[in-house]
Amino acid sequence: MKIKKTYSIWIILSVTGIILGHIFRSPPFFILPVATLALMVVSTRVMPPKRLSVSIDRESDERKREIYVGDEIEMKVKIENNLRRSLILEVQDILPPMVEVIEGSNHKVMKFDKNEEKVLKYTLKCPVTGNIELGPLRIRYVDPLNFFSKERNYGDKVILRILPRAQEMQGVDINPSYTKHWLGDIKSRTIGVGSDFFSLREYHPGDEIRDINWKATARYFDPFTNEYEGEKSGDVILVVDGYKKSMVGTTRHNTLRVSIDAAASLASSILSARNRLGLIVSGEYVNWVYPGTGKNHYHKILANLTQFEKGGSWGLEGVKNLLEDFFPRKSLIIFISPLTIIGFTETIIDLSRKEYDVMVISPDPIKIEETLTEEKDELAEMICDIERKNIIERLWNAGTVVVDWDPNEPLEPALEEVLRYKEKR
Amino acid sequence: MNRNRNKTLIQNIKESMGNLFSTNPYYLLILLALIGFIIIIEGYLDTFARMLSFLVVIIFAYGLITWSHSSIEEDEFWEDKDELSEEINLQVRDIKRVLKLASEGKEKSREKLHKRIEEILFLKLKDKKDMSRQQIRDLAEKPEELQELVNDKMISEFILYMERSSDSSDSNAKKKEKENYYIEKIEGTEYKEYIKKLMKRIDEWSDD
Questions:
Q1: What does pTM read for this prediction?
Q2: B23-79: per-residue pLDDT in tens?
Q3: How confident is the model at residue B3 (pLDDT cuts 50, 70, 90)?
Q4: CB-CB: which of A101, A249, A389 is closest to B88?
Q5: Under CATH, which architecture does the A234-424 domain have?
Q6: Region of residue A155 (left: phi > 0; alpha: psi -120 to 50; beta: else)
Q7: pLDDT tens-digit profile of B142-168?
Q8: How far is CA A312 from CA A243, A244, A283, A307, B164, in A?
Q9: Domain map of chain A by residue range?
Q10: List of residues 6+ apart from A179 with CB closer than 8 A
């Protein structure tokens, strides 16, 4: 139980009154302290109960829930007063800073009659990805005279997973240069299993009837069969740079968060083209997912991406070793990095010189910073610009494809432009 | 065994008495007794008894104030924190700050800024001339060759200056040599202009 300062002040006032009354032998000096003492005696009747007996129940048995970034979720917490007296309680469901309450309130003052049950109801949404903790529920009893208070936390924390939402990238075909033998969407320029016509050949016994080209057969009086262009797929590995020094911006909008959103969009596009997709995120620790396909795998990728809202101390050197030791060779590696550390350039170049096809998608940190600062400094901006320009130029000259992306704009047009340029080159 | 049981009994009595003394009716009783005591003493007793009652009031007041003070704690105001606007690693702002200090002649800031420019320069040389950092450092020992390779007086002078700056020996000759460089002598707008010009040269520099 906490005693407020006001209670102490009342005590001092009444005692002073008694002493003064004693000295001056004056009845008014006695009336005041007697009144205040009476007030304090009354206040002891509304002291907090020895145990705040309250039970709570979150309206879901699931300990873990998932929503996509920007989605709304309604939270309901049932609170029951188990005491045989009425209580006025201040109730707050503790929420992390990144959460926005859009309807109702997670913080209320509620009056409970004996054994009464009430519901704290609110709707929230989270503008950023990550695992967020909701709760515990904080309850505070304050007496009507505001002399005493008592508070306690109830219930466990509930984890809510905010998954990144993938942007549509229909116009972008990210295809690995090296394909594997399994079926996919990449045209292999060789005869194989596919749907696009490639050439004609004479019919061989065993060819399917539906593959016979009836027009050619009629023209040459010999059966001819259609051949198709083989469609294959390959391995793509997304590497997200979660190095703490690479994080530029604010907690809400920074290079790591936009990298995670970009990775989610790319993952969706790559997997829908039937490629195998792997993931490495270097943050507080290096987290990786071995290449795979399918919806479950996509969900696994998203779940792994949500764990990194804070940057870590793992640089790209550790990632390079992991790639070389555990991931399949001849994969397309897509680095998503703001390229703020000059030292990372050589690591990326090292990989591109080995049996990897390397692409860098770089959210421009200067563009993020521009939205935050009102006062511009031409020289400081010039130094940062030249530094970035040099890194990108070095990577291009070393044979790496770099997408210089303004994170305030969608990724698709920037990526499309670079891929078109790469094809021409 | 018996002693233990007796102890427990005494403890039980003590505990129940303790509980009794901490109940609300107990406090109510004490307060009412005190009020009655004061009124009676004021009305009927002589000077000595009044002095005694005064002392009792003081002792009681002292106890009450000490008790209430011992557990005084103000409640914090519950509010949701907004940490989303916290700014992280703003590079342009950082360079702006360093530039300001460097132009005022602050040595550490100059060192930091020059190191950053040197990194940019090394990357450019690595890209255009395929020269490692060590090769450039070795070349800095032969200024004429460096000048010939870089083909830009301002850039080669900056490389030489950085080499002299990184020299850890405390010899006076080296210090004097470093102080002779133009960049060491300038401050304020002149320094900023110099850095701007140097950056432009680095940006435009190529091996052709």
A1: 0.75
A2: 566 666 776 776 676 666 665 556 666 677 677 777 777 777 776 666 666 666 777
A3: very low
A4: A249
A5: 3-Layer(aba) Sandwich (3.40)
A6: left
A7: 888 888 888 888 888 888 888 877 766
A8: 5, 5, 4, 12, 35
A9: 2-37, 54-163, 190-229, 234-424
A10: A186, A188, A232, A233, A234
What is residue A253's DSSP assignment? S
Cross-strand bridge partners of residue A103: A123
Q: Name every chain A residue with its beta carbon within 8 A of the beta carbon of B196.
A: 379, 382
Q: Is residue B84 part of a domain?
A: no
Same domain, B58 and B101: no
Q: Which of A8, A37, A382 is the closest to B72 by Cβ?
A: A8
Amino acid at the residue A26: S
Instruction: Tell me if B123 and A342 make a contact (CB, 8 A cut-off).
Output: yes
Q: Which residue among A3, A37, A394 sits closest to B123, beta carbon to beta carbon? A: A394
Q: Do B95 and A384 touch (CB under 8 A)?
A: yes
Mean pLDDT for chain B?
76
Residues of chain A with pLDDT under 50: none
Report the candidate in A293, A273, A278 with the shortest Cα–Cα distance to residue A231: A273
Structural domain including B14 reads 2-66
The answer as to CATH 3.30.230.10 being correct for domain A54-163 is no
Cα torsion angle, B13, B19, B22, B27, sign = negative
| ipTM tops 0.85 | no
CA dist A210 and A203 (Å) reads 12
What band does B171 get if pLDDT is binned at 50, 70 and 90? low
Q: Are residues B28 and B113 in the same domain?
A: no
List the single residue in A with minimal CA-CA distance to B64: A11
**A108 reaches B (C-beta below 8 A):** no
Q: What is the pLDDT of residue A123?
A: 92
CB-CB contact of A309 with A96 (8 Å): no
- Strand ranges for A180-223 from DSSP E: 180-191, 197-202
SS3 content of chain B, % helix, strand, coil (to 5): 75, 0, 20
Report the DSSP pairing between strands A64-68 and A158-163. Answer: parallel
